[in-house]
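Chapter summary example.
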Amino acid sequence: PISNDMPRMVANLAKSAGHQMVFEVYAPGGRTLLQHSRDPKLVEKINQQAWDFVVLQDQSQVPAFNQTQVARDVYPAARSLRQRIKQAHPQSTVVFFGTMARRNGDPDNARDIPALGTYAGMQERLNQSYMSMTQENRALLAPVGYAWEQVRRQNPQIALYSDDTHPNLTGSYLIACVFFATFFQESAQGLPAPAQLGDVTAGYLQAVVDEVVLKNAAAWD
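The structure predicted for these 221 residues follows.
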């Protein structure tokens, strides 16, 4: 399941801003884009209605692996999925969920790829792969990793993880704001946030999203 029901957070932000957002989630745990590209159930989901946006996300580690593996397993799967989406509904926009790196990188794979030994190194590799997929497929990028990186750099005291991999409530709200701004090209400033975050933290996260997503909108399109 998606941590903290994040897609519903996006829908709630949309509703607060006067938009009606209909959504459906299909996200089996640990699934890669390659596995998604071979899944007939996903094709059914894509075909069932004319989606404005279809969000694609790979497993959290795979896009940061060596470029030979990414070129073999990730990029072709992204192309295949984009083709299926466009064949079903030409007006649908493909959005890549540019994920955040794990809290301390991916030490299990750092022997082969030293950059994965740190959060920053893993994040840079994820950013590069998702940007490549976005450009190649003429898609949109939801730059979650970039926003996450900025919060960690500016305010490391703000906890975003529930463990080494998954977001806590604060992290999920940051992700939701990124998607809200990506979909609607509007600021989330002043929109509701979970009470546990507090007004100061919520306002700061909203401002980060404005700076990352909206002030650099051309970079993600």
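To summarize the output: Residues 66 and 113 are 7 Å apart (CA to CA).
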